TrEMBL record:
It is found in: Cell junction, Adherens junction; Cell projection, Rhabdomere. It comes from Leptidea sinapis. InterPro entries: Band_41_domain (IPR019749), Ez/rad/moesin-like (IPR000798), FERM/acyl-CoA-bd_prot_sf (IPR014352), FERM_2 (IPR035963), FERM_central (IPR019748), FERM_CS (IPR019747), FERM_domain (IPR000299), FERM_N (IPR018979). The lineage of its organism: Eukaryota, Metazoa, Ecdysozoa, Arthropoda, Hexapoda. Residues 24-306 form the FERM domain. This is Moesin/ezrin/radixin homolog 1. GO terms for molecular function: cytoskeletal protein binding. Keywords: Cell junction. GO terms for cellular component: adherens junction; cytoskeleton; plasma membrane; rhabdomere. Coiled coil: none annotated. One of its GO terms (biological process) is actomyosin structure organization.
Length: 344
């Protein structure tokens, strides 16, 4: 009891000291489940925190990554890169989670081994948490690459305990047959380095239909529950986990929202005379705005040559925020040389 009281008093005095110095304390959950603590100026912006987290992990290709925090019960709200952290958070320490915001469509194009490793951790988390599902044989193949990357060449038969320890596969997907398949595939990877196993893991994971998709719950025009998934290729509509329609970015002319309504304006096909408007209802205006912002940021990152500012048109209602968190686009990352910062 006394020990816990002393620890609490020590933490409180530490927080008071931080406030007096003008610094704030951020507790960051990493993709492997570990936590780190970062102290930085309370006037710092979201971009400064992303940079500090990436520097602490030696991540060079930081434009793919972002930080999530919980806001009004929603645990998946992205930190605004241009907003002061002191305006985003109230109580300290400020809790955030490192995540991949823009999943590269071709993971092999990543030049930095650390960035590729963090991406593989993100995909593994998506699979464990059920965001990505696949067939039993694909589960087995991906799990075998995880073991090769984490443990090296096979030394003994694969066990459920080993699979659980390395978060290689959701436990609900483990059967005797799957376990045997993992063991057989693991044998075939002998000689692969951890980096090679990670590349092979990502090259297979990128083929999954929901790879890198950010999902949002909505209702269609018939008031039926659906999922809108935003990814590098465009926007996908799912009902009962079944893909009902896909709209590539080239098909989408405009994305807007007004209160709870999120609207897509689609290009007319060769069989249509007019453009098509599709509207969806979300549970709140805030959720609609988040989906709009997610869509626009993904379109900018994956389709534009460089970031653009979303301007308001005079005389028309404001159908979207102009605060977007995207510093460089995929095209810029592909053409610009990797910048290695040498720290003293």
């Amino acid at each position: 009891m006394r020990e816990s009281q002393r620890r609490l008093a020590s933490e409180e005095s530490s927080m008071v000291g931080l406030k007096r110095s003008g610094n704030g304390r951020v507790r960051v959950e990493l993709l492997d489940g570990e936590h780190i603590t970062i102290d930085l100026d309370r006037k710092s912006r979201g971009a400064d925190l992303v940079d500090r987290v990436c520097e602490s992990l030696d991540i060079l290709e930081k434009d793919y990554f972002g930080l999530l925090h919980t806001q009004r019960g929603d645990p998946r709200v992205w930190i605004d890169l241009d907003r002061r952290l002191s305006k985003t958070f109230r109580n300290e320490p400020w809790d955030v989670r490192l995540a991949v915001k823009f999943y590269p469509p071709e993971p092999s194009e990543l030049q930095d081994d650390v960035s590729r490793y963090q991406l593989s951790l993100a995909v593994r988390r998506d699979i464990i948490e059920g965001c990505l599902s696949c067939s039993p044989i694909t589960y087995a193949l991906l799990a075998s690459y995880v073991l090769q990357a984490e443990l090296g060449d096979r030394q003994s038969r694969v066990s459920v305990a080993t699979l659980s320890q390395h978060h290689a596969i959701p436990l609900h997907a483990v059967t005797d047959t799957t376990e045997d398949n993992i063991d057989q595939l693991y044998r075939k990877h002998s000689g692969q380095t951890p980096a090679e196993a990670e590349i092979n893991y990502l090259e297979n994971a990128k083929k999954l239909p929901m790879y890198g998709a950010e999902v949002h719950k909505a209702k269609d025009s018939e008031d039926i529950d659906i999922i809108l998934a935003v990814s590098a290729s465009g926007i996908t509509i799912l009902r009962d986990s079944i893909i009902m329609n896909r709209f590539p970015w080239t098909k989408i002319l405009k994305i807007s929202y007004n209160k709870r309504t999120y609207t897509l304006r689609l290009r007319a096909s060769e069989f249509d005379e007019f453009e098509t408007y599709l509207s969806f209802k979300l549970h709140s205006t805030r959720a609609s705005k988040r989906l709009w912002r997610c869509s626009v940021e993904h379109h900018i990152f994956f389709r534009r040559e460089m970031p653009v500012k979303v301007e308001r048109i005079l005389g028309f209602p404001r159908l979207g925020s102009r605060r977007l968190s995207c510093r460089r686009t995929l095209r810029q990352l592909r053409t610009e040389p990797l910048r290695v910062e040498i720290r003293a």
